[in-house]
Amino acid sequence: MNNAPVGAPTTPSSSLPVVSDDRAEKRQQLINDAVIRLAGNSQDGIQAIGGFLARLAGRSAQEVMTYMTIPSTISGGPSIFQVRIGSGEVLSAGDEADFLVAFYQHSYKDHISFLKKGGIVLYDSDHVQPDLADKNYIYVGVPMTGLTVEALGGTAKDKGKNIFVLGLLAKIFDLDVTKLEKLMTERFGKKDTSVLNNALMAFHAGYAFPVGNIIDLYKFESAEARPGARAQVTMDGNQAIAYGLLAGGVRYGAAYPITPWTTIMETLRSELPKYGGLFVQCEDELASVSMALGFAFAGHTAITGSSGPGISLKTEAIGWASMAEMPLIVVNIQRGGPSTGLPTNVEQSDLNQAIFGGHGDSPRVVLAPQSVEDCFYIAIEAARIARKYSTPVFILSDASLATRIEAFEEPNLKELMINPKIDLSPREPNFKPYPLEKITQHAPPGSKIPEGQYPLITGLEHDELGHPTGSPKLHLAMTAKRRNKLRVLAEEIPVPEVYGPSEGNILLVGWGSTYGPIREAVDKSRATGDSVSSIHLRHIHPLPNGLEKVFEGFNHVLVVEMNDEGVYGYGQLASILRARYCNPKIQSVTKTDGLNYKVREILDRTKASLETALIKR
Amino acid sequence: MSAETTIPASSQTPAQPDKLTKKALTADHPTWCPGCGDFAVLSSFYKVLEKKNLPHENIVTLAGIGCSSRFPYFVNGHGAHFIHGRAVPFSSGVSLSRPDLHVFVFGGDGDGYSIGGNHLDHGARKNIKLMYVIMDNFVYGLTKKQTSPTSPIGYKSKTDPTGAIDRPVNPIKKLISNGATFIARTHATNPAHMIQMMERGMEHNGFAVIECLSECVEFYPGAFDAANPRKGGAFNLIDEKKWDGTAEDEARHDVTDEVAAFKLANEPFPGLFGVFFDVDRPTKNQLEKKWIDSSREKLAGKSDLDILQSTFDRMK
Predict the structure, then answer these.
(1) Global ipTM
(2) Residue A460 and residue A335 share a domain
(3) pTM greater than 0.90 (yes/no)
């Protein structure tokens, strides 16, 4: 670190059209929100810059949200990473960017339209020739490739360019260099020391570039940590699910790789052995759900997971979990479907599959996290419900939450941590695995049943002891038993709070990753005088009791979701709510472009949907 | 405290004080057709369990779907009746997470070699510690006479009215090439041999598969008469090496020789009976445990809470 060339001035190349010779420092503007879009190719390490910025924000008590796209090609291809940092609440990754960092001509061409009017394009002048005649934007050309090579020596390989850009951004936004250096040391310090040294050299070369001669510099208003608040942790949604499962006492799982689910199984595979647990990569989806059910039968709260196509394959075994009443968590990181669909895009089109997938009446619980932070807490809740009700529980996340990085207040692990235990105590001689009068709690193998009959766990319709039966009376009673435990669960689920007044014209209903944009849409509508509130459902099946009372307070209930309106004109959650409440006020706002909702889209679509219905405010 | 510490550490649990009896092990009366070969497999299994006197609560019988997969209902012990073809991964979950249990898997040729064929390969490859008895009757019985993966060419079934045309699976060759570490073949009409094979299978530390010819008297009667001396057939045993240095021993079968086992498996029907292959290779159970142990050793007694807390500290 000491031998890094701190603050060494670098002569800008003469080919830079907009660099002025004016050496006077521009003034520093105070800002509280910035959207930075980094556009390059997937191998450029732009995710790394985004990750550093997000973690820095997290350490500075600022709010942060990121958004990234990865190409579904094997290697290479255009990729973006967008970071929104705010000193106040950050609800979405931002509709428009304030800054665009363009590594290539295609990055510039494809993303310039996402830049706000008056926004700044920071481009690699070794690769990009912008249309300087377009006066909507401010152009800052920096020979990023050349200067990185100059700083590090060596060849014109693109390595290190990302860290150079990080240095540049650190200068523009007056970021905390000490904290960034610490983050880089944590990230690269474990490798060969030359890796860290190169990173620091590239960073300082970028930091030393006299960008202040060209544009104004900025500084984030310092964010005040809430009194008594814990430090922030920064992670993506898939990490939050994995660590939530660990905190929730889940120690055994099995799966098969599929985008965008895979990073959860990678995390659990390497983390679980530390906890005395195990995660197995199986030969296919069928084997992985089956192995997870073997873990569950053995007395563990087990987890399997996948994305759409893999969940389809697991469906038969999930039916067994309903029938046999097994504590199984199934994570579905939704992507665009059907079939192979859009593997790296977002969609909320697996809701019906989660609730109804498979043959027969097979009740299961479906939960949907609304933010990265919520991914952590919902995983703990899923484990608790799976155990308490001996049932399969779906966690419906999506591609957007999976890859999005957020900073959130560190959970109080001491209070939350569950240490799993298996109850192998001897049971009564008349032990019944499937008692009709109460919720099933299995006696795992290893528990003695002195003088009695050992339980048989089965997918055939069965009597209270688990022995097969074709009795109409028993099928009736057992079907009701499996369904009724979800009704019992519904009683303990709180009705979510309404965001905004509990009475008004429009209530937006959402679930999953649309939480942020919907709230921002409510804020914007209310700011212009429109009467809009929202409610976000985390428990989709069973629904909490009492939603009908919430709906009573509004003239219109619009369900906003990322799936198709279907043959009858209603999205998947809207259809369920209409069936449940028979309320014609419930209307649907849907889309299937594979992208996150923008705040603007929600506002426009809400308006359009009301106009279609010829509704006056 | 972690999950594993609440479970007894290994299957070397002491024998229970009360003698395990056939009476204690008997559950529902089997639903098989009178004369079905599977009855003999069940009574041989009771005999082996009585002899081994394993702790009753640690005996687990598991199965997929099929006539023979009804097995767990007929054994009074912890058990599960899972879905078609997936008995091996299900049982693997039980075996890998509960070293204190004795895992026995039962099923038929359709469940094991057809719909579950891929899982059999991977269970073998992973060398999961369990014993799997496949009652092979060369026909689908539960669904009433359709061609099975082991039906011989020419066999007339409801799905091949003019005779089966697809080449049957050779289970022993399939198992050898996929890495099963104990492979035996027996016949339901020879209980003494069945018991011998099951005992050896149970003692084996790894993926032990016993292919057991078990006649379907309803849909394929007489299928295995050629291997039944009482019906004029020949029950030809594999002559295993005794390693006694004698000249005769030279010609005997070395159960650790994969190529020799493959050659024996090539014998035309009714083929040979006995142990084809028996080797020691680390089980997935052992290898995963090794990783778990070394991971935990590095953490020097830290609690689960401490481990997760230090992970979160790194994300601040």
Answers:
(1) 0.96
(2) no
(3) yes
